[in-house]
Amino acid sequence: MIASIPDHRAQDKAAILIEALPWLSRFHGKTVVIKYGGNAMINEELRTRFAESVVFLYYAGLRPVVVHGGGPQISAHLDRLGLESTFTAGLRVTTPETMDVVRMVLMGQVNREIVGLINRHGPFAVGMSGEDAHLFTAERKHAVVNGEQVDIGQVGEIVDVQPGAVQCLISDGRIPVVSGIARSDEGVYNVNADTAAAALAVGLDAAKLIMLTDVEGLYADYPDNTELISRLTVGELEELLPRLSSGMVPKMEACLTAVRGGVPQAHIIDGRVPHSMLLEVFTNQGVGTMVVDEIREAAELGAPTDIYQDQEENQ
Ligand SMILES: Nc1ncnc2c1ncn2[C@@H]1O[C@H](COP(=O)(O)OP(=O)(O)O)[C@@H](O)[C@H]1O
Ligand SMILES: CC(=O)N[C@@H](CCC(=O)OP(=O)(O)O)C(=O)O
């Protein structure tokens, strides 16, 4: 009997699947922290596709951990209550009244919805607040405007991460879904979700931090020029940071914290594109903006680079 040859479409699918092989091998068993921003969860279709991608990563042998935001959802709820949203240097000015709404929307609405969507596929997702089991401990953070410190209320800066409870969930085959609220002996704090995701990625020694947002990645000269920067070293990012504007500031600072803290790669990708996360993890071309530490990368590849040569020349 002669075996029938599959048509071209089936062969194309096989080629796409086999392209993922080196990435499956590289990331098998590795923890990947995914920051899911409020702007990338604006409709049911996107939220459903996001949950599918997370479950796909899980079945592919990675250990996904989700840290979610919900800024637009918090603002919408404050608006319904007749309360104004005020941001200073990209951070929400958080009065005690605002803090109650932040906590309610993040844990009672956004976290529940993500957990529910992932759990359509099996008993995987477990929701947690950064307050649980001392996951995130914070201190009060001040914003800096024109070199002056400005009081922005109950906004926190994470000073300690105890990832034990998250690690237990991962070992038990679960997908932790974490909101960026932090505790302290004085009370609770509202933490920017990008910052919380970076702190957790470092605490878990993650192989990657992926941030989903509502743009393709980091643009070189936003808003005048939307040319995408596809790869950037921590040194280049440090130089660029003072010229960035609000939304991207916490995001790029978070990439810097993660990579400086030992996470090999941090990525900003477009959460409006269904399954963009899978394109980032499993395809050769990648998507969005990737931040790497050039010295660490060179050491892993075992190849001499200009940096090492420069250092030798300077010695
Ligand atoms: N250089 C830049 N490149 C891309 N986007 C930028 C840049 N500077 C500012 N932004 C803004 O940052 C926004 C993303 O940040 P944010 O609104 O906080 O998203 P999220 O809810 O995903 O955390 C973009 O929609 C864009 O308007
Ligand atoms: C201090 C601070 O600004 N906290 C954010 C927390 C949510 C968040 O970061 O959500 P996105 O990722 O969707 O922007 C806020 O209150 O909006």
Automatic annotation (TrEMBL):
Q: In which pathway does it act?
A: Amino-acid biosynthesis; L-arginine biosynthesis; N(2)-acetyl-L-ornithine from L-glutamate: step 2/4
GO terms in the biological process aspect are:
L-arginine biosynthetic process via ornithine
Task: Locate the residues binding substrate.
Answer: G70, G71, R92, N190
| E.C. number | 2.7.2.8
Which GO-annotated molecular functions does the record name?
acetylglutamate kinase activity; ATP binding
Q: Which GO terms describe its cellular component?
A: cytoplasm
Catalytic activity line of the entry:
N-acetyl-L-glutamate + ATP = N-acetyl-L-glutamyl 5-phosphate + ADP
Q: Give one Pfam hit by family name.
A: AA_kinase
Under InterPro entries, the record lists: AceGlu_kinase-like_sf (IPR036393), AcgluKinase_fam (IPR004662), ArgB (IPR037528), Asp/Glu/Uridylate_kinase (IPR001048), NAGK-C (IPR041727)
Q: Where in the cell is it found?
A: Cytoplasm
Q: Which family does it belong to?
A: Belongs to the acetylglutamate kinase family. ArgB subfamily.
**What is the recorded function of this protein according to its Swiss-Prot or TrEMBL entry?**
Catalyzes the ATP-dependent phosphorylation of N-acetyl-L-glutamate.
Q: What is this protein called?
A: Acetylglutamate kinase
- Primary gene name: argB
